[in-house]
Amino acid sequence: MQTAPTYPTTRNLSSAPALANVLRSRRQRLAETISFPVLLWSGMAKPRNFAANLYPYRASSHFLYFAGLPLENAAIRIEGEQLILFMDDATLDDALWHGPSPSRADIAQQMGATEARPLSDLADLAVGTATLGEKDETIQMLEQAMLQRGIVLPRHQPQSNQVLQKAIVQLRMIQDEGAIAAIRQAIAVTVAAHKAGIANTPAAKTEAQVRAAMEAVIISHDMACAYGSIVTVAGEVLHNHHYHNLLSPGDLLLADVGAETADGWASDITRTWPVSGTFSATQRDLYDIVLAAHDRCIEAAQPGAEYADIHQLACLTIAAGLVDLGILSGQPEDLVAEDAHALFFPHGVGHLMGLDVHDMEDLGDLAGYAEGRQRSDRFGLAFLRLNRPLAAGMAVTIEPGFYQVPAILNDPQNRDRYAHMVNWERLEQFADVRGIRIEDDILLTASGCEVLSLDLPTAATDIEDLVCSTSELG
């Protein structure tokens, strides 16, 4: 089996003591909640059509949380405060194609591992451990081959696996100092990327050119994108990964772009700005409604607050604003109870953020939903990703929006259900607004919250000034 580089050679090994201390603290906190050994895999790179051409590799976030390094084809066994690293040293072929890399022993020392062993030793120590359940078929096959007993590890300790999942959710949900520092780094680069995108808009002809300007900043800081960038004039497509559209003066450009540090910590910021540098009257009206929801939700975010209530606040604010504009008719509370707001704001107001941009969603709703709570199938709540009380140390996003999605607005059932709540003729006057989203990353503190992405303005006049100032310079 061909192996890719096991370790980024640009990382400075002199940072080992600080990293080791952070990882040791995480193991100590895990040991306080479980009493059995744990096995976590890093994962393996996937080929594009042939073995030597690989997709960009990203290690498992659960592995990264306790190992700290984006290793490939490696595993760690944690028992109490002890950590054993399993990985093979690089071969001569690896050195030929990928250059020199630190030895297994050097890497183990940096992460504070008590032992470093080759992968072949894993079979002796894997049985009896709990895992999170590997979804990667290659890793599953590798586990079976190593054990040589036909045992699939994720199923041999099911009860312990469930306890482990809950323990890791509780640990990763509250960000420690090492995590917060890394998230701040990712956000600082993301803010710079958004400013570069705004600055390049006056001269850009396509979405792709603005995307290139934004991602260039991220790449220049030796980071990657935390998710597929959304840079589009078709803002009503929530996860739009096409960049071919031409930019026209009357367009709004929605950019949802976030950087990720080399060790996996994410950021997630969205801004919407007018290509011309000036919002039209209708665009400004709707932008200010979304901004009001954004600001009120951030104001309400504090320890003990229910995130579902913050989502509800966003819904009510948007509904009230649309009533004021004559788009909706009725009392905001009644409209939200009927999910009329979801015609224009169908998603949740945000999510957990950390080692993944939607942190721990690989575990389903275990992280996002407090124990005993289940996701609703209501039109206005089905996409709520976070439903639990907030606590100091959580990193979450606040991202209300307004969208005119043809599939929703033209659906005959919606037209019939909301016939007396929506003034469709009035709505047509806002046809130059396809999508608006304003998203910031916040950290819950003991007394409230800190807006980590505060350096990127949100007020409409400030956004216009950013576009126009670069246009005038050009």
Q: What can be said about this structure in brief?
A:
This protein is α+β, with helices and mostly antiparallel strands.
Q: In total, how many domains does the architecture comprise? A: 2
Mean pLDDT, all residues: 91
Instruction: Round the Cα radius of gyration to an integer and report it.
Output: 24 Å
**Share of β-strand residues:** 5-15%
CATH superfamily of the largest domain: Creatinase/methionine aminopeptidase superfamily
The oligomerization state is single chain
Numbering strands along the chain, what is their spatial order in the largest sheet?
1-4-5-6
Q: Strand count, sense and closure of the main sheet?
A: 4 strands, mixed
> Would you identify the CATH architecture of the largest domain?
Alpha-Beta Complex
Helix content: 25-40%
Decide which structural class fits the backbone.
alpha+beta
| Gap between N and C termini | 53 Å
Shape: globular
CATH class of the largest domain, please? Alpha Beta
Number of strands: 16
Which fold name corresponds to the CATH topology of the largest domain? Creatine Amidinohydrolase
Query: Are there runs of 5+ residues with pLDDT below 50, and where?
Result: 1-16, 150-156
Counting H and I runs of at least 4 residues, what is the number of helices? 16
